[in-house]
Every structure is written in structure tokens, then in C-alpha cells.
Amino acid sequence: MSQPNERPEPTPSPEPMPQPEMPAPSGRAPEQRTLRKPRSVRWESAWVRLPVLFVPLLAVNGLTTLINGVADATPVTGLLSGVATAGLALGAYVWLVRRLESRRNPAELRPANARSELRIGALLGLGMFSLVIAVIAMGGGYHLEGWGTFGGALTTLGLMTCVAVTEELAFRGALFRVLEEKTGTWGALAASGLLFGALHMVNPDATVWGGLAIAVEAGLLFGSVYAATRSLWLPIGLHLGWNMAEGGVFGTTVSGSDASHGSLFTASVSGPEALTGGGFGPEASLVAIVICLIPTALFLREAKRRDRFYARAGR
Question: What is the pTM of this model?
């Protein structure tokens, strides 16, 4: 019992219940979203993961080029070598990603999407370059001379398969994907495109204009395809279809290099470099740049529509 003169102790008021955080407004523009690093990533800094992933993949690209250069003596060995080295490059990418990102299975290489997206990308690449050649031919710059060799085209197919796989793994799978965490989609597009163009500056007949053309028409195009789909299969197929049409079907120079080992047609090119691309090949022509910018714009619009366009970190 309490004493008569004692006042009872006041009952403490209950602490207020924590209020749940309200979600961000859904009407926010897609480009204002920031791409966040997956929680499973072991290496916290993108600036650390980027060189550890990108540089080995560039080395894989160089190594597979040497292997294919030795194995291209016959169409069969050339084709098998190109496909096998492409498979080894895919395995190297998966292994590196799993080691660096806490055993993450790369969703950008989901096996279920491989067949359909490779087929669609290859057909799109073949169609786009066929349109480029058609326009150049109507301008008097491309002259079809006759049939080439089916065996040579097979060898070229093997080589271009490996080129498409290794370059897309390095520049879109590593460089674009990881850099986007820090620079956003626009920064990743610009940087990966410029470095992709710079890679082709080492080719025998490379020019500064040719490198810039590759950066715009190929670097931006392949980057926009990845941004819209978040899959590497479609840009790999597109890259393969374009290169195969260029070097393995129509018999033109590929990016300033004599990478082709034969084609279905033999042809010659003459006329102003703005039309034909000169010694660098049709990729340095204004025709190719204009034709590639159209799907680039469409894929970038699709990326925004799908809410897959991200702002620079810290904004």
C-alpha cells in the first residue's frame, strides 16, 4: 500500500510506433533511377572489379585470336576452332563473374535466351549490313565480281563467332555493365563505345575516322541493345551477323583488317571514302553510320520504356 501523502509515479507514455517508410513515387522518370550493385557482389568497389574483369577478358580476346590464326588452315579446323574458343571465352567470363561477385550466376548469359536471341541478332546484323551494301552499290561504290568459296566463308564464320563473343563479353559484359554502376547508362555507353573504337585502331588499315565510326555505329549500337535487353546474347548475335555479312558474304574489309579468310562473293570497292569507307571498309562510310544510328535510337528508347536507364551514382 502507498503512503497517504505520496503521489503515485506517473505511468511512462508508450514509445511511438515506428512508421513504415513510404516508397518513392512511381512517377519518377526512369533516367533518375540509380543502378545499385547487387547485394551478392563480393568486391564492393566497381573501380576494383572493373579492371580485374575487363583486362583478363581482353587477354582472352588476344589469346583466342592467336589460336584461331594457327587453326585456320582448313575450313573445318577454322570453324571448329572459332566455335571452341568462343565457348572457352564464355566459360572464362562465367568463372570470373562467379569469383568476383560471390558466385552470382550471370543473368546476362541466361541459357534459355541463347538460341532465340542469337538467331534474332544474327538476322538483324545480316539485314543491316546488307542494306549498307545495297546503298553503297546504288551509289556506284560496290562491284560484285563473282562467287567466292564456301570453305573460306566457313573459316570466316568460325573466326567471327569468336570475335563477336570475346568482344561483347569484354566491352558489354564487363566494361559497360560494371561501369554503369558508377557513371550511369549514358556514361557507360560513351566510355565503352570510345574504347571499342580505340581497340580497332590497332588494325593494319585503321584510321582515326574509322575508329570514331566504330565507336558510334557499333559501340553505341551494341551498348543500346544490352541496355534494352540486359542480355549479352542479342548483341553477340548482332555483332556476329554484321561481321559475317561484311567479311564472309560480301567480301569487304572488316574494320581495317584482313580478318576475312574467304567469302561467298568476291567484289571490289571504289569511289569516295564517305560512301565506301576506303581501306577501313564499309564501317567507315557515312552510310553505315546513318543506318546503325536508327536502331540505336530505337533500342535506347526501348531501354527507357522498360525503365532500364540509370543515372550516375550519387545523383
Answer: 0.86
